[in-house]
Amino acid sequence: MKRNVVLKLSGVERHYGQGDTVLSILKGADFTLHSGEIVALVAPSGTGKSTLLHLAGLLEHPDDGEVSINGHACNGLSDDKRTAIRRSEIGFVYQFHHLLPEFSAQENIMMPQMISGLARKEAAVRAQQLLEYMRIGHRGSHRPGELSGGEQQRVAIARAVANAPSLLLADEPTGNLDPETANYVFDALEALVRQSGLAALIATHNHDLAARMDRRVTITDGKVVEF
Ligand code: ADP
Ligand code: MG
């Protein structure tokens, strides 16, 4: 498989003003992520993992530097264009699933596809395929509240990739799960990434999971460094 650069951060700066003081979180961070690659982002709380993922996902603007998705610099783009790129190219998974409680698992996965203009029937077929891929094909009609934590996260992962994005960003996706369930959820995520050629950046505190990824990076003194 040809390895394209999916995500590139160049000299990214992010500073938060807090009263008279400025909190510098990212100070010239560089990072490159290729298709088909799973990278662990492991760093202590408060070092800027979520900040980095939000910048990579075009949810925030850097104070300086550049964020490129699939070779396109995104800084100067309009909010509409950034939203369009986010919808088609980027999938997010959070620590808490954020599934809509009044809809079934299958409907939750159909939602982003229908927002992108896919017909209900086609969205339903793809949602079911993804559920089966995540080994919860029999749970499609259940609402999130009827699913276990591990099942909920597998639905959230399926929803994140429903529009076949090129980049998956996950912010401590197994942080709320016991180690065995975390492993099982990561197995499913890994299989999906390997099969689809997605690029994935996964913030985690779980060193066993990090060890299974292709590369490990951390944030030190506002920069992204491999370890
Ligand atoms: P992590 O995900 O690694 O725990 P975060 O990226 O959430 O770290 O936060 C990094 C630091 O930036 C923290 O000290 C946090 O308090 C601060 N921070 C994050 N977002 C904001 C914000 N919107 N305004 C001010 N400070 C923020
Ligand atoms: Mg965080």
Write a compact overview of the structure shown.
This protein is of the alpha/beta class and 227 residues long. The chain is built from seven helices and ten strands.
Bound molecules: adenosine-5'-diphosphate, magnesium ion
Q: Estimate the global geometry from the Cα principal axes.
A: globular
CA-CA gap between termini? 26 Å
Taken in chain order, the helices and strands follow as EEEHEEHEHHHEHEHEE
Q: Proportion of β residues?
A: 25-35%
Give me the count of strands.
10
Instruction: Show unreliable segments.
Output: none
Radius of gyration: 17 Å
Structural class: alpha/beta
Major pleated sheet:
6 strands, mixed
Characterization of the model:
By secondary structure, this protein is α/β, with parallel strands linked by helices. Helices cover 35% and strands 28% of the residues. The chain contains seven helices and ten strands. It has helices at 49-56, 79-89, 105-115, 120-133, 149-160, 179-196, 207-212, and strands at 5-18, 21-34, 38-41, 64-69, 72-73, 90-93, 167-171, 199-203, 215-220, 223-226. A six-stranded mixed β-sheet has the order 6-7-8-3-9-10. Strands 2-1-4-5 form a four-stranded antiparallel β-sheet, covered by helices on one side. Strand 1 and strand 2 form a beta hairpin. Helix 3 crosses helix 4 (120-133). The radius of gyration is 17 Å and the shape is globular. The mean pLDDT is 95. Bound molecules: adenosine-5'-diphosphate and magnesium ion. Magnesium ion (MG) is lined by residues 49-50, 171. The site of magnesium ion has 3 residues, from helix 1.
